Amino acid sequence: MIAAVTLLLMLSAASGTDPVAGPITGTWACQSMNAGAYTGRSCRQEPWLKLHPDKTYDWGRETGSWEYNGGVLSLSGRSGKGRLDTGGKLIYEYVLRGQHYLLTLYRRQ
Q: Average per-residue pLDDT in the chain?
């Protein structure tokens, strides 16, 4: 059992993945946005979401702390929740000024 845990930690360190945060840390770029009439619109010009290993994040001018528990990402400065899909993309949903947004982000680094 100890050997398995040690191996997991070694693999996580080699891949740059935090064993607690899972595969969520890193830089994410917006691929598409669904919001009202803008369903599936490209959002490549949007700021990148940077989830730092110290549990802080930057998303454009927005900064704060993040938490990843049970496969759910929460950001202190934004309502809503995120999750990884089966393809490894980050799906983040939130409501802003009464409008529902669904962003699909992909890992950059």
A: 83
Q: How far apart are CA 15 and CA 78, in angstroms?
A: 28
Beta strands in the chain (DSSP E): 26-34, 41-42, 49-51, 56-59, 62-69, 72-75, 78-84, 90-96, 99-107
Taken as a whole, the chain contains a residue count of: 109
Confidence bin at 11 (pLDDT 50/70/90):
very low
The pTM of this model reads 0.76
Query: Nearest 10 degrees: CA dihedral of 101, 63, 26, 86?
Result: -20
Measured CA to CA in angstroms, residue 32 lies from 42, 69, 70, 102 at distances of: 5, 24, 25, 8
d(CA 43, CA 29): 9
What confidence tens digit (pLDDT) does each residue in 36-66 have?
A: 877 888 898 999 999 999 999 999 999 999 9
